Amino acid sequence: MHCPFCRNTDSRVVDSRTAEDGMSIRRRRECPQCGRRFTTTETSSLSVKKRSGVIEPFSRDKVIVGVRRACQGRPVTDDQLAFLAHKVEEAVRATGQAQIDSHDIGLAILGPLRELDEVAYLRFASVYSSFDSLDDFAAAIEDLRKSHTG
Questions:
Q1: What does the alpha-carbon distance between residue 86 and residue 58 come to, in Å, rounded to a whole number?
Q2: Model pLDDT for residues 76-107, shown as the tens digit of each residue
Q3: Do the Cβ atoms of 56 and 47 come closer than 8 Å?
Q4: Side-chain half-sphere of 95: how many Cα atoms within 13 Å?
Q5: Contact 49/57 with Cβ under 8 angstroms?
């Protein structure tokens, strides 16, 4: 870590704290050369491997955009979508992997979306799971009905 004031390549950590819901670490550092203090924020990177093989950083915004399409015309607020994206990111980070397949992100979306809005869940699942027939929809609806009665 370079000192932002004198560009010295060494610094010493004075204090460390978690920040932003435990998703990052805030470190207070001191430069041994000039004696000035500065703050750094460290976050773990999370990459997504798409079906095409392309690797890109995880984005909550992309989760929200994908789920928003399924929620079109449904009584779902932006705050609820943001919270869903937060839950998805937590679930994905809990796997402990630095790189995750986009398919696994879709799986992580299904659970929270089902709790949020069942119609949006069916819409998302029909595209994500590539429903081919009415039987696929009927099976998904039957599964939802069983969860209500069971």
A1: 12
A2: 999 999 999 999 999 998 888 899 999 999 99
A3: yes
A4: 16
A5: no
Give the dihedral sign, CA 137/139/141/147: negative
- Report the C-alpha gap between 10 and 90 in whole angstroms: 33
Scanning the chain, the segments in alpha helix (DSSP H) are 60-70, 78-94, 102-116, 118-128, 134-149
pTM assigned to the model? 0.71
In tens, the pLDDT along 111-126 reads 999 999 999 999 999 9
Pairing status of strand 55-57 against strand 99-101:
unpaired
Helix (H, G, I), strand (E, B) or coil at 79: helix
